[in-house]
Q: What sequence folds into this?
């Protein structure tokens, strides 16, 4: 498939460069300047480090982690089920039509399974969590910030990262891989509907080939390589969404308007971060 | 009203020449302020004159551009984060809207500083929380959430939370704002009661004359970023300073003593 891009047309690198420069220029234009942008990024990195430093507090925070995990998982399960089944169906249909032209539609199962497990499952799950749970986190933290609740905790010398941020970030890092498994499973089933109903591939063959495609064990990991890769990504996606959402909320100023801005910033930046992290994690896993 | 040992002479809070600007807006321009142990100082002044800003400096939420702030005899500029945390453990801060944590019920809100900061066991926390709820007369509200109680009750719980760690210095930011007169009176009585029975030192930002007369030993009139008038309560309201008179308005030339 990637052979299509080889050789790369000569106008491709300059176009990419232009797009990148345009994106950066737009970001600087819409934000309060490069300095504010750096401070914002620095604040998020600092929060991530602070959360990592408080991981030993987890035992003490387990009831809050459990509560947040439950909220994130149960509240958004139906979204993942709905999105997952349709992603699998779209994936099967798109690739199936191409494969059918070469009479290769029997290969549909492995393609859908690997595509979901490696890429679409964790990615879609992270985006769904960013827009549902991440936005709620940002609004919650933002409301606490603008109503002096965070300041109150500060003057009481209460560790806010340990109390508020740690359980939420950890919950997302648990929920994202767990929901990815659900998304993958339902997606493979959705692909199976399309394969058997529209492409004439038998259900049993589809399931058999899908599962055996995923069965290949990776080196040094206890799980099949593609499944492990997807869950590894999902873990980091979840943690990233959690940190960015909390940091945006904490930085909110200026009443309800400020909370609204913080929420939209959280979803925007979490989406960008997940996409960028996706590239680098994929590169790390499959280089 | 107070035993002599409670009205010591060492100032608990001392601000000297404090300046603070936000951008080009100069808010404090050399504020001098002193509160002695066991006394209650009220800060009066127009809206936006920097009363809350002054309070936030005392608890180290803001740093002055110039001038010094000493709390319990220690200079906030040199105590460092750990030192500031130790000083804050001896202070309580009552926020304008209560600032209770919205997703915790009243019991958990009150228990929070005990659990988080003092690391007490649940067996030790429960009686302390119950005692605090009794003191501010919100018994039985422990299972309610902040969104389910009235503004006056939130403020009471805010006071209880500030007091639960047994602070020596309590800062109140407009404890009466937005309350009707009756509830306001009960809050004033509460502040007075706390000062008398626990012997705490207090700084109260307030602009209602009847509240100040009820709770304060001294009053400071903040005007153009400085302590324009600072005097014992009776003397303060008798002052003929034209700016203060203009602020208080004609109705309060002869202050009514609202004692209960
Ligand atoms: N963190 C801040 N950043 C910028 N301006 C502030 C900040 N805090 C207070 N101010 C400004 O300082 C002035 C005094 O505020 P404040 O102390 O809250 O007034 P008040 O006397 O009514 O309590 C206001 O004009 C306010 O806008
Ligand atoms: Mg104020």
A:
């Amino acid at each position: 498939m990637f052979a299509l891009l080889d050789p790369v047309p000569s106008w491709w690198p300059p176009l990419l460069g232009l797009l990148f420069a345009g994106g950066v220029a737009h970001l600087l234009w819409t934000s309060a300047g490069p300095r504010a942008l750096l401070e914002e990024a620095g604040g998020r990195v600092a929060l991530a480090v602070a959360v990592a430093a408080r991981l030993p507090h987890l035992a003490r925070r387990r009831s809050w982690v459990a509560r947040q995990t439950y909220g994130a998982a149960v509240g958004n399960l139906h979204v993942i089920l709905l999105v997952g089944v349709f992603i699998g169906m779209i994936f099967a249909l798109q690739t199936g039509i191409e494969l059918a032209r070469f009479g290769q539609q029997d290969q549909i199962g492995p393609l859908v399974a690997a595509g979901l497990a490696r890429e679409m499952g964790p990615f879609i799950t992270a985006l769904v969590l960013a827009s549902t749970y991440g936005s709620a986190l940002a609004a919650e933290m933002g409301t606490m910030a603008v109503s002096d609740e965070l300041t109150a905790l500060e003057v009481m010398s209460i560790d806010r990262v340990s109390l508020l941020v740690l359980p939420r970030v950890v919950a997302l890092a648990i929920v994202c891989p767990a929901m990815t498994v659900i998304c993958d499973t339902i997606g493979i089933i959705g692909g199976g509907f399309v394969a058997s109903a529209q492409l004439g591939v038998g259900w049993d063959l589809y399931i058999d080939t899908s599962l055996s495609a995923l069965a290949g064990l990776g080196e040094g990991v206890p799980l099949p390589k593609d499944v492990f890769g997807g869950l590894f990504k999902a873990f980091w996606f979840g943690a990233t969404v959690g940190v960015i959402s909390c940091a945006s909320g904490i930085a909110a100023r200026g009443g309800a308007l400020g909370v609204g801005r913080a929420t939209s910033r959280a979803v925007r930046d979490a989406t960008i971060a997940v996409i960028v992290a996706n590239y680098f994690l994929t590169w790390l896993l499959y280089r | 009203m107070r035993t002599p040992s409670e009205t010591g002479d060492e100032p608990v809070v001392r601000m000297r020449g404090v300046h603070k600007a936000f951008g080009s807006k100069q808010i404090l321009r050399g504020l001098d302020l002193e509160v002695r142990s066991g006394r209650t100082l009220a800060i009066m002044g127009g809206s936006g004159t920097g009363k809350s800003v002054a309070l936030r400096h005392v608890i180290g939420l803001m740093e002055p551009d110039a001038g010094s702030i000493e709390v319990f005899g220690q200079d906030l500029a040199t105590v460092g984060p750990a030192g500031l945390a130790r000083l804050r453990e001896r202070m309580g801060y009552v926020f304008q809207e209560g600032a209770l944590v919205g997703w915790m019920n009243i019991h958990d809100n009150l228990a929070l500083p005990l659990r988080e900061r003092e690391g007490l066991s649940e067996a030790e926390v429960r009686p302390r929380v119950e005692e605090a709820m009794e003191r501010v007369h919100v018994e039985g509200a422990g299972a309610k959430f902040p969104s389910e109680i009235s503004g006056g009750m939130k403020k009471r719980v805010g006071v209880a939370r500030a007091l639960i760690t047994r602070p020596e210095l309590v800062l109140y930011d407009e404890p009466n704002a937005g309350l009707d007169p009756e509830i306001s009176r009960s809050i004033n009585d509460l502040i007075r009661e706390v000062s008398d029975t626990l012997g705490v030192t207090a700084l109260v930002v307030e602009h209602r004359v009847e509240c100040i007369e009820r709770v304060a030993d001294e009053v400071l009139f903040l005007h153009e970023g400085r302590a324009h008038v600072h005097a014992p309560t009776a003397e303060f309201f008798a002052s003929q300073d034209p700016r203060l008179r203009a602020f208080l308005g004609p109705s309060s030339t002869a202050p009514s003593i609202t004692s209960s």
Notes: Residues 63-286 of chain A form one domain. The two ends of chain A are 18 Å apart (CA to CA). Chain A touches chain B at residues 140, 143-144, 147-149, 151-159, 163 (CB under 8 Å). Residues B 51-52, 173-174 surround magnesium ion (ligand 2) (CB under 6 Å).
